[in-house]
Specification:
The complex is a heterodimer of chains A (about 375) and B (about 140).
Chain A (H helix, E strand, L loop, with lengths): L7 E8 L11 H16 L8 E3 L4 H8 L5 E3 L3 H14 L4 E8 L27 H16 L3 H16 L14 H6 L2 E3 L2 E2 L9 E9 H4 L7 E10 L26 H11 L8 E3 L5 H10 L8 H4 L18 H4 L7 H15 L12 E8 L4 E8 L4
Parallel strand pairs in A: 2-3, 2-4, 9-10
Antiparallel strand pairs in A: 1-7, 1-8, 4-7, 5-6, 8-11, 10-11
Chain B lengths: L21 H9 L3 E5 L5 E2 L14 E5 L3 E10 L11 E8 L4 E6 L12 E8 L5 E7 L1
Antiparallel strand pairs in B: 1-2, 1-3, 4-5, 4-7, 5-6, 7-8
The chains are: A alpha/beta (about 375), B mainly beta (about 140).
Chain lengths: ~375, ~140
């Protein structure tokens, strides 16, 4: 039973320009551009907004945009969409703006990006950073299930070739890539080579969540939030990223993070895995795609490697993934923008806005954020209609 | 010449220990690898915590590990997180024989020697400054 007859929809989305560096921009300037872009896409005004979700910036944006009294969200990634949808369905807000942006925070290029570096006393002395955290998950899977270097290269080449064809992508025109090109790039944190890894970039994005009823009179076709779930095992980058980390209640290991979330999302939506037309999977590292396909039950445990070998995950395959080029080729602008952008891409696919990368007959999109290397995974199901 | 994985020699980043974690680092400087065992349920907690992660009792007792275990997973890092680290180095998760896991680096080995289940033992090394770190070497 739903708590009310209010149904949350995504009524507008916007990506600002994304680039390795946006010299003239700041995080705030991109935030403002993203908000205005998403409102324009939806056909709404700032005066319609009574909710903001921007992590730690929610409160200051409510003040600076003059939209108070307003509801404020605190979550990130897929979770912020679930949180805002719940707020709209409960009636805490009618029009919520979700936004994330970053420019100018990666200045020390001798080090890895600031959002990748831990400060924990049991982590930092070992030279850990995000690539190493996720590499520990990948290596364990290789040892247990025999996943290969070549299989990871297939994933990275597929995603990078999507970005190669996406005019909005930071690495537009950089391909095409063959799996051998991925394997031949320089090693970063083995098994990962440079082209297995997300880029660093700058940019912003925003989305508007409102009720289906309100959206009926707006500019764009609304995209329905059909179901969502988030699985956390603890804080990112403070504890060993062990595949076998388990809690006391559920036997599901961290290596399968996202399984409970996906089961929940599919149950809420009343859909099966076979109903999904496009998978906007979060791709911080190539192996994470193989893991998510297993964790989310698109293939049996240990079979994610073979699953990606036969073209199934390419744009023309049965399970097209990460169709804008993802974190590897579209953009990875910090802690949260690239997470929101997985959902935004799902919206674009369901509205038929994906241009040369449009998946034909895309009615249901599954979007993810996170990964086992960071001890969390979120899953959201979007639909162009209610099932 | 094959690459050998070695301990870091510069002043690597590390957070200031808290009241809860200071005994662990003090013991490292003495050549002891400590973990917490619950005085109520005997559950092992690592990294250290004020409360037992098993029964939540606040009766943590420091105990010395034999320092032996097996390699659970590893990554040979070629692009260091900051210039303080000299690559390559092998960040790793080790499963101690007492049954808990910790992050470390594997040293005194060649990258091609590393495999899941490799027997390892603790080896304390001093990096830049006064920091003693519990590295692991093949046993």
């Amino acid at each position: 039973m739903r708590a009310s007859n209010r149904r949350a929809v995504i009524a507008g989305v916007h990506n600002t320009r994304q680039a390795r560096r946006l010299e003239e921009e700041t995080s705030r300037s991109l935030t403002v551009k993203a908000i205005l872009g998403a409102l324009d896409d939806a056909g709404l005004e700032l005066s319609d907004v009574d909710g903001i979700s921007a992590m730690e910036n929610s409160t200051s944006l409510i003040y600076d945009l003059g939209v108070g009294p307003a509801w404020q969200g605190q979550d990130f990634g897929v979770g912020m969409f679930a949180e805002a949808a719940a707020a709209v369905e409960k009636g805490y807000a009618d029009v919520v703006v979700l936004v994330a942006a970053q420019a100018g925070s990666y200045t020390d290029r001798a080090a890895t990006a600031p959002w990748t570096r831990p400060e924990n006393e049991f982590v930092a002395p070992w030279g850990m950073f995000t690539a190493a955290e996720f590499a520990l998950i990948a290596r364990r899977h290789m040892e247990v299930f025999g996943t290969t270097r070549e299989q990871m290269s297939r994933v990275a080449a597929t995603i990078r070739n999507n970005g190669d064809r996406n005019p909005e992508a930071v690495y537009h025109g950089r391909g095409p890539f063959k799996p051998e090109d991925i394997t031949a790039s320089r090693p970063i944190a083995e098994p990962f080579h440079l082209l297995d890894c997300a880029m660093t970039s700058e940019g912003g994005c925003a989305a508007i969540i409102t009720t289906a009823e309100r959206a009926r009179s707006l500019r764009r076709q609304p995209v329905h939030v059909l179901g969502a779930g988030v699985d956390f095992f603890g804080p990112s980058y403070q504890f060993p990223p062990s595949w076998d980390l388990r809690g006391r209640r559920d036997d599901t290991a961290n290596g399968w993070a996202g399984r409970r979330a996906a089961d929940l999302a599919f149950r809420q939506a009343g859909l099966d895995r076979g109903d999904v037309d496009v998978l906007e999977l979060y791709d911080p590292f190539s192996f994470e795609i193989i893991r998510q396909l297993e964790a989310l039950r698109f293939c049996p445990e240990g079979e994610g490697g073979p699953f990606v070998e036969d073209g199934r995950i390419e744009l023309t395959g049965s399970h097209p993934i990460t169709t804008d080029g993802g974190l590897m080729s579209f953009s990875h602008a910090g802690a949260n923008p690239q997470m929101m952008q997985r959902v935004i891409r799902g919206v674009q696919q369901l509205r038929g806005d994906a241009g040369p990368l449009q998946v034909p007959e895309a009615h249901v999109a599954l979007c993810t954020t996170g990964g086992a290397g960071a001890l969390f995974t979120g899953v959201i199901l979007l639909g162009d209609d209610l099932p | 010449m094959t690459t050998r994985l070695r301990a870091q020699t510069r002043d690597v980043p590390h957070a200031t220990p808290s009241e809860v974690t200071r005994p662990f680092w003090d013991a490292c400087a003495r050549g002891e690898l400590l973990f917490q065992r619950c005085g109520q349920c005997a559950h092992i907690t690592f990294p250290p915590s004020e409360h037992c992660r098993g029964c939540l009792a606040r009766r943590q007792v420091w105990e010395a590990s034999a320092g032996r275990g097996t390699l659970y997973s590893w990554t040979v890092v070629h692009r260091p997180v900051t210039p303080a680290f000299e690559p390559p180095y092998a960040a790793a998760i080790v499963t101690l024989d007492e049954g808990y896991q910790m992050l470390t680096n594997i040293i005194d080995a060649a990258p091609e020697d590393l495999r899941a289940g490799l027997p390892v033992q603790v080896s304390f090394r001093r990096t830049g400054g006064d920091l003693w770190l519990p590295y692991f070497v093949p046993a």
